[in-house]
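User: I'll paste a sequence; please echo it back and then give the predicted structure.

Assistant: Echoing your sequence first, then the prediction.
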Amino acid sequence: MEPLLTEIDHVAIAVHDLEAAIAWYAEVFGATVEHREIVESDGVAEALLRVADSYIQLLTPTRDDSPVAKYLANRGEGLHHVGYRVADCARALDAVKASGGRVIDESPRPGSRGTTVAFVHPKTSFGTLIELVQDPN
């Protein structure tokens, strides 16, 4: 079987103060923001810091009912999820479902940067929330 995961797209870190987190990464590691976006559907503001061919995705909620707001309230700041690049998001999501895995998204949907994404429930993936990311580029 050909592997469905092609690369790590990003590691997402939930933070209370996006500007402070950006400043810390810049000061300590010299990291700069390559992309910023508000993802209304998820209720988050994000900043992507490039690391080789991947990103650190800093996330902060834009509304109190967003999944990231709930995560911060329950667990505090820290690792939120890992995004894996896939050539075909629908195919990878179908593979999870065919294995009996739980998914958060029943079908792929638009993500940031023009990507197509779907989330796999952490109860399926040994406690880690997984985002499948199909990059149009």
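Helices lie at 18-29, 67-75, 89-98. Residues 88 and 134 are 6 Å apart (CA to CA).
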